[in-house]
Design goal:
Length: 334
Amino acid sequence: MSLRGGPRTSADRLARLLNLVPYLLARPGIEIAEAAGDLGVTERQLREDLELLWVCGLPGYGPGDLIDMAFDGDRVTITYDAGIDRPLRLTPDEALALVVALRMLAETPGVANREAVERALAKIEDAAGDLVAAPVEVRLPGDAGRVAQLRAAVESGRALRITYYTAARDETTERVIDPLRVLMVGGRTYVEAWCRRAEAVRLFRADRIDAFAELAEPAVVPPQARPQDLSEGAFRPSPDLPLITLRIGRGERWITEYYPCERVESDGERWVVSMRVTDLGWARRFVLGLGPDVAVVAPVELAEQVRDTAVAALEAYATPIPAGADPAAAGGRQ
C-alpha cells in the first residue's frame, strides 16, 4: 500500500518507522529522494520520520541509547540502530501482555483484517509456549450480546430504526439511520451512521441504544457521508460549540488531562480552564458533579444555571417531610 503524500494514521507511521531502520541499515549512504520513492512517502515526510527516529531508542535515552545517523548532503546512514535489528525476545510478562492485547484487538468491533490479528496471535502463542499457557479470557466492557446483534444488523446492509438516549439533553428519541460501521473508541462501542433526522453522520453509543429493529429497506448512505476521523477520540471540539471557562483547584486538575482544553492558565493555587462542550445542559451537570472546588467564570448563563440548580437542591433538603410521608414520593428528601 502506498503512503505517498503522508501517513493516514499514527499506526501507518509506526509501521513505517519500524521498517525504516532495517531498510537504511541495508542501504548505507542512500539518497533521501531514492528512499522516499521506495517507501512511498514524500521527501519532507521521510525527513520528519528521520527526525523522530533521532529521539527513539533504549531506556536511559542518553548518548549511546538513542538511534543515531549521519548525513552527507542528501544521503543518510544509520550509525547506531539501538538493537532494533536484533530478534525480539520477550519476558513472560511481556509475552502475556502482548497476547492479552491481541486478544482484545481481535474482539474489538470494526477492526479491519481480523484474520491477520488472529494469525499474529497464533504465532506469538506458539512461540511463547508455556509462557502464556495460563488461561486468559478477554471481555470488552458493555453488553457483548447487544454489540454482536448490532454488528450483525449493520452487516445486513439494511436501515435501522433505533430508540436512542441522548445524555447531553437527557432525552430519548426514535431515529432511522443508515449504518456505516461499528467501531470502538475510548473503550466504548459505537455505531457510526447517517442519521436521517439530523441529516448528518452521527455516532451512537451502543449502550445508549435502548432498542433497534432492521427495516425492510436497504441502507442508503448519501455520497457526502464520510466516516469521521476518530483518532483523537469520539468528541471533536469545534468553534461552533459553546465555550466554558472554569476556575479549578488542585484536586480537579485531572480535567485538563481527560478533556480537550483550549486554554489552561495558572491563577496562583488555582487554574483557569477553557473547554468546548456539546451544550450548556451537559456543562451544568458536569460542573455540579465536580464539587465545591470549581467555579464557573464564563458564560454567565452557565453560572446562573449552576447556582439556581444548587439553590433548588439545598431548598429541597431543607424542606421537612410530613410525618408518615414516603421519602421517595417527596422527591427523595431525608
